[in-house]
Design goal:
This protein is mainly alpha-helical and 189 residues long. 61% of the residues lie in helices and 9% in strands. The chain contains 8 helices and 3 strands, in the order ααααβααββαα. A hairpin with a 2-residue loop joins strand 2 and strand 3. Helix 5 packs across helix 6. It is globular. The relative contact order is 0.08.
Length: 189
């Protein structure tokens, strides 16, 4: 979250030596824009890193709110979607594909298994390996949840001008590729 900076050295210390963080803090001060202020709008010349940070937080909050009412967490839906596409993954493979921490996947899968949506099975070729499978009940739950969530997401992007969609799409694809590479690099892969 951006914070208003008025000579507050603590905020500067939190920003560290990161130029984008310093720019975001300084820019927030210059423009009077602080994410979360009632009626605040993001300035068009705000640093890209600040805009992406705020957009990411809002997309995440919207994702969580759209999943409410399905009876399953957004992370649970993510795991079910992965297994619907690639059933029989190991937990570590689910974590890597979903960019989740392994402990998060374990916790989510524990809940999904308890609720009958996922089952763990030993790999017949290597009994040390446990694979995750979507159950019929899990597939049904996913198929019930996706349309409701999908409608909300489709409606949410109704503001996008169809003529601008290819540019936005290209930006997002390149962003996914770039940050996917950065995450893999950070994780040493």
């Amino acid at each position: 979250m951006l914070e208003r900076v008025t000579g507050d050295t603590r905020a500067e210390q939190r920003a560290g030596d990161s130029a984008p963080a310093r720019d975001a803090l300084e820019h927030g001060n210059q423009q009077g824009w602080v994410w979360g202020d009632e009626g605040a709008t993001a300035p068009l010349d705000a640093p890209l890193s600040a805009l992406v940070s705020v957009a990411t937080r809002l997309l995440g909050a919207f994702w969580w709110s759209t999943a409410q009412g399905t009876g399953i967490s957004p992370a649970g839906i993510g795991v079910l979607r992965l297994l619907a596409a690639r059933d029989g993954l190991k937990s570590s493979e689910v974590a890597a594909r979903g960019w989740w921490a392994p402990g998060t996947v374990t916790s989510v899968v524990d809940t999904l298994a308890r609720d009958g949506y996922v089952e763990r099975r030993r790999d017949p070729g290597d009994r040390r390996v446990v694979r995750l499978y979507l159950t019929g009940q899990g597939r049904h739950k996913l198929m019930d949840s996706i349309p409701a969530i999908g409608r909300k997401w489709h409606d949410a992007f109704g503001y996008v001008d169809p003529a601008e969609e290819p540019v936005i799409r290209r930006f997002l694809v390149e962003t996914i590729e770039r940050f996917g590479a950065l995450v893999r690099e950070e994780r040493g892969r």
